[in-house]
Amino acid sequence: MDLKEIQTLIKFISSSKVDEVAIEKKDFKIKIRRNIPSGTKLVAAPAQVAQLPVALDAPAAAVAPVIEAKTEAAAPVAATDTGAEEIKSPMIGTFYRKSSPDKPNFVEVGDMVEKGQVICIIEAMKLFNEIESEVSGKIVKVLVDDSQPVEYDQPLFLVEPS
């Protein structure tokens, strides 16, 4: 993603009702947020962070880009009261259970998954990101319908750890 694409994205965010967008590519991850409460600090990860000069037409407090190195965790996992763990969305986008309309779903309720296995795809800005399981176990519940928009940190699946 070049500087012009980032500037276009920032202008789009400032003129829309979206408060946050996250994009992941092979070598970087970018989050753009707006309407951030004062006193909140945005920090870029120190490892291989690209420092890009960005000229903003909007006030700096209204739109703030954050660029950080890609982390190994593709989908955060959180514990629930039932012992099952939630696999959460690492980005905003559109949730897909299969790679194309004519293919089977990556996982179904009752399937056993291994850590690192692709369980769904999230499309963000025409980029299709494979989401991998961060836990081995049995899929207990699919929490999102196919082709539905998802938010950052939204639970996608419940997995009973093995």
CATH architecture of the largest domain: Beta Barrel
Largest sheet: 5 strands, antiparallel
Q: Label the structural class.
A: mainly beta
Any idea of the CATH class of the largest domain? Mainly Beta
Please indicate the percent range of residues in DSSP E strands (runs of 2 or more): 35-45%
Keywords:
four-stranded antiparallel sheet; single chain; 12 strands; elongated; 162 residues; 36% strand; 2 domains; mainly beta; OB fold (Dihydrolipoamide Acetyltransferase, E2P); five-stranded antiparallel sheet; 1 helix
Topology of this structure?
Layout: H1 3-15, E1 20-24, E2 29-34, E3 63-68, E4 77-79, E5 85-88, E6 93-96, E7 112-113, E8 118-124, E9 127-132, E10 137-142, E11 148-150, E12 155-161
Antiparallel strand pairs: 1-2, 2-3, 4-5, 5-12, 6-8, 6-11, 7-10, 8-9, 10-12
Mind explaining what this structure looks like?
The chain is mainly beta. The protein folds into 2 domains: 3-68, no CATH class; 77-161, RNA polymerase II/Efflux pump adaptor protein, barrel-sandwich hybrid domain (OB fold (Dihydrolipoamide Acetyltransferase, E2P), Beta Barrel), CATH 2.40.50.100. It is built from 1 helix and 12 strands; from the N terminus they run αββββββββββββ. The strands form 3 sheets. A 5-stranded antiparallel beta sheet has the order 4-5-12-10-7, with no helix packed on it. Residues 44-51 and 67-75 have low confidence and may be disordered.
